[in-house]
Amino acid sequence: DGTSTGAWQVVLLGAGLDARAWRLSPGKRVARARALFEVDVPEVLERKQSVIASVSAGAGAGPPPPLTLTRAYHAVCANLARRDWTTRLRDAGHDPSTRTVWVLEGLLYYLSQKDSGA
């Protein structure tokens, strides 16, 4: 799969309140991802940051918990029903030549048939 010997990255489309970047570990035989990109509409990503901050503050920790799955986290504000989301993803640092794990859990439900057919 290449993740044990080379760079890899993760893209969560329609990320919602997913917390993989903070709760999952890649394990002993797989290196941490170079980067994790969460793509969602601004309102959702802002809400997520608010929840993470409030959980951290409630625990007395202050800053967000450390990333476990990745070395770098990127929130990409984009509407996946529009074609410009790929440009926004690249602008955030996604490298199309690096191996990528794409996660689309629960996303297609929110897209029209036309938007999900690509």
Q: In a nutshell, what does this entry contain?
A:
The protein has 118 residues and is of the alpha/beta class.
Overview of the molecule:
This protein has 118 residues and is an alpha/beta fold. Helix 1 (20-23) links the parallel strand 1 (8-13) and strand 2. Helix content is 27%, strand content 19%. The chain is globular, with a radius of gyration of 15 Å. The mean pLDDT is 84. It has one domain (8-107). One of its GO terms (biological process) is methylation.
Summarize this structure as a short list of keywords or feature phrases.
118 residues; alpha/beta; 4-stranded parallel sheet; 4 helices; Ppm1/Ppm2/Tcmp; SAM-dependent_MTases_sf; methyltransferase activity
Tell me the domain tally: 1
Strand order of the largest sheet: 3-2-1-4
Total DSSP helices: 4
Strand content: 15-25%
Estimate percent helicity. 25-40%
What is the N-to-C succession of helices and strands?
EHEHEHEH
Q: What's the layout of helices and strands?
A:
Layout (H helix, E strand, L loop, with lengths): L7 E6 L6 H4 L11 E6 L1 H17 L14 E5 L7 H7 L7 E5 L9 H4 L2
Parallel strand pairs: 1-2, 1-4, 2-3
Protein name: [Phosphatase 2A protein]-leucine-carboxy methyltransferase 1
Keywords: Methyltransferase, Transferase
Organism: Micromonas pusilla (Picoplanktonic green alga)
